[in-house]
Amino acid sequence: MKEGDGDASLVYFPDITITPNHHALARRFGLFDRFFVNAEVSSQGHIWSTAAYFTNYGEKIVPSGYGGKRADMDGEESDEPERGFLWTLAVREGITFRDYGEMVKGNPGWPVTQRDLGADVNPDYVPMDLVTQDQKRADVWITELQRYVRDGNMPQLEIMWLPMDHLAAGRPGKCTPRACMADNDLALGRIVQALSHSPYWKDTVIFVVEDDAQAGPDHTDSHRAPFYAISAYNRSGTVHRFINTTDVIAAIEDILGMGRLSKFDYFSRSLADIFASAPDLTPYGPIIPTQDLNEKNPQNTAAARLSENLDLSAPDRVDDQLYNRIL
Question: For the chain, is the Cβ count within 10 Å smaller at the N or the C terminus?
């Protein structure tokens, strides 16, 4: 989007036929053109995005694994945040919490385990894979929201991972990159629709972040990434102010009256100025992408042959440069 220092010639999906909801949400709730992630790669990013911290050892060592300099990633003993995660803090401070796919063990060989999550995980929400459409994940969340509305007990903090924007390269039979992204786009739009038609719309905010900008550097800065603040208190227009990952975590902590997890959220920049004083309770109506969500990659193409041996069973198991060339 040119209003946010965007350059459509440099992105994979500039066409709003694929991402109409991302475009519409940015136009209605604010286009943030100075959001920067704290992480360079995903193994850092999921920790930064949930703990406002990554260990000194991990900052120095983990990125080298993505550069092919090391055989594997380190286990959790090397990057475990001393004060835990947002949900750890929530439990300590009596804040109700629900997890939808974040740091939930998926396929065999999955590199992460459920850190302190316990019974707060929705068992029906499929964690990261490249088989399940994000529509099905949205269905699970919306069904549970309806129950929360009926019973009046929506958790105060929820964390959700919509993973299909990882795409599936050119693997035959998998969703095409366009279809994967359109699926992710519509799922986000449907989630906002459901919340905005519920009684919780008047006092809930959705923060949408990427955990990292790995292997897709922006023309402004390799840490710049999309960010959305979606609520009845957010307004249209381009927001030209610096925000990073730990500022968003601090905003969550401020809204819920929680303490801090690290010095990074402690010394954060307040996001109070991005919210209006009075709500606009107009609900959001999702836009159906014209892109076919069920479009599949064909057989016997150059992209199919290059994708044949890619390990798509879990995040961060492919050569980023090869993956980008396939796309």
Answer: C
